Amino acid sequence: MKTIIVPLDFSNESLNGLKLALMLAKKSRADVQMIHIIGNDIDDAELLKEENWLAEKKFKDILQKCKDDGNIECALNYTIKEGNIFKEITKLTDRFEDSMIVLSTHGESGFEELFIGGNAYKIVSHSKTPVITVRKSKISAGIDKIVLPLDITLQTREKVPYTVNLAKMFNSEIHLITVKSSHLKSIEKKLYKYTEQVCSYFWDHDIKYKVEHLHGSNLTDLILDYSTSVNADLISIMTEQEGSVSNLLLGTYAHQMINKALIPVLSFPNYHLGNYAEDF
Fold this sequence. Notes:
- The chain is of the alpha/beta class.
- Helix content is 43%, strand content 22%.
- The protein folds into 2 domains: 3-134, HUPs (Rossmann fold), CATH 3.40.50; 145-279, Rossmann fold, CATH 3.40.50.620.
- It has a 10-stranded mixed β-sheet, sandwiched between helices.
- Helix 3 packs parallel to helix 5 (119-126), helix 4 (111-117) crosses helix 5 (119-126) and helix 8 (219-229) runs parallel beside helix 9.
- The two termini are 21 Å apart.
């Protein structure tokens, strides 16, 4: 990871995303690129000029505070854009190679409303880079425990190498959990095979891990309840997968998880399908 992109509306909630980005940047030595987007519904030129001036001032205050607190151990930059939030963030990610987005899903000037309305949903589901979504949660000083769910889809393992890289940075323990809503032997057999494969990968990369097998009707609640019980700092999921009653589709289970999770959720895009599968 070379660049971490952080959309800000300057609310305390969105600044949570910046705290997480700075923590990640410290470990990965990535640059942090902040972005504020002024809505395209402002027609008055003077009002638009004032909005730009206020955003510029707030960014300078953030830079000064980070400098005073000694939090700047990376290149910390900002940009101000006018237009559609989803489109402008997408354009920005296309400019950087090996980037990640850290996105607060609840803020004062529209992030909560936009997320429910589908704008931040679009960012997560269409991003070609990993996205970490953050709600109104306290940001930990590190990432000690990562919950990594597996289902029966082929793509479910795509997130494993990326998650392992994060675990190496923070010396994290990965909690590998299988989730299913059926007792079919074919599903159980596939999940156990995937588990053996992933555990072997962990072993080869010297990763601390634990394994649990969970069953229930609501996969989202299974994962969230388990994550709470072990005090996890991050949940790692896929954003798009095959249509299956047992998978973690963004439109259903994963979408619920991002909305309900009180800890950061890493959503890994399946646009990389085949790039990482070769590692297994």
